[in-house]
Model the fold of this input.
Amino acid sequence: MQKICIVDLTEDERNELRGLNKKSKSSARKVARTHILMLADEDATDKPIATALHVGKATVERTRKRFVEGNLARALSQTPPAKPVA
Done:
């Protein structure tokens, strides 16, 4: 299956993710998202990432999508995106 949202981290983003993994105050979800992005940046596909990290495939897909459509902070966030005002 072809990846839809390709994660291509900058060196600064990689360093930020590594730093978050070292902080003990980061939430488990945020740490999982950092691992998702790092593995995705290494060209891993969604199903193996989900299996390795014990998360749902939808979590991997959503994290990729948030990164591609937003930025690193958006991908690591738990808050849903703002809904457009009609």
Remarks:
- The chain has a mean pLDDT of 86.
- DSSP finds five helices and no strands in the chain.
